[in-house]
Amino acid sequence: MPARDRLLALFVAVLWGCNFLAIHATLGQFPPVFAGGLRFAVIAIPTILFVPWPKVKIRHLLGYGLGFGTGQFVFLFIAMDTGMPTGLASLVLQASAPFTVLLGAVFLRERVSGRQLTGILLAVAGMATIAWQQAGNAALLPVILTLLGALSWAFGNLSTRQAAPDNPLNFVLWMSVVPPLPMFALSLVMEGPAEIGHSLSTLGTTTGLIGLGGLAYVVLFGTIVGSGIWTSLMRRNPAGVVAPFSLLVPVVGLSMAFLVLDERPSLVEILAAAVVIGGVLFGSTKRRVREPDFLAEAETPQPTGVR
């Protein structure tokens, strides 16, 4: 992987890690489910007008949109709105990786290796420790909601695998067409027109401008720029080389939440975070088997006529 691509991968990890700060700012102005609907509606309108159809089956696009888009962000935004620390949210959402492996085994009959199973168990142990710590602070529900968001993301990943789009970025952009209607409908039922109206009528306030700035960041940098660069990196390099850079996202998220929001995770949570990231990394990389020297020598072609 060229040095330029490594720097780009690091840049995307920083963009996505800061995305959680932007979500925090957005939720300061908008109700959580309504904020999720706005996030996708802003992308959906220009996508319909200017982006070519990704040439996939509609059921796969709907599955990805309902899983990755609707389910993930409904649960995540409500979790963060009800007390899930911003930094920990960026970490717990990494549970989507082991969830994807398990769901792939159940629904797609994909084989789970011993290495993957070990990584899953490590990640689960770390998540359970974080949940135990948060339960002691009466904040278990936001952790559970974030885990449900990660599970929804994993279901969306299954649809992506089945869709196998020729242009992944177009597929991601067209996925944004799916969530707005169900999210706006849920918002009307759960949050009510009065709360939605108040969030829109106070956009000129300081909080409103900060909320709009957060929404703009999520759309432009978190989605369009970040996903665009990531897609190009995945095309030019092996997936196994690029994917581990995503594990830097919770590192950035936790660090930025500490610096900007003064969130201070406990020592136990920091150690559990390291276990989670290590488990995901261990389970998502393949073991490189070195060929024995004598075997390599035996298979080396000999010059013709030489004994």
UniProtKB/TrEMBL annotation:
It is a multi-pass membrane protein. It is found in: Membrane. Residues 7-130, 142-282 form the EamA domain. GO terms for cellular component: membrane. Keywords: Membrane, Transmembrane, Transmembrane helix. It comes from the Bacteria. The chain crosses the membrane at residues 7-27, 33-54, 61-80, 86-108, 117-133, 139-159, 171-189, 209-230, 242-261, 267-285. Gene3D superfamilies: 1.10.3730.20. Signal peptide: none annotated. Pfam families: EamA. Belongs to the EamA transporter family. This is EamA family transporter. It comes from Amycolatopsis keratiniphila subsp. keratiniphila.
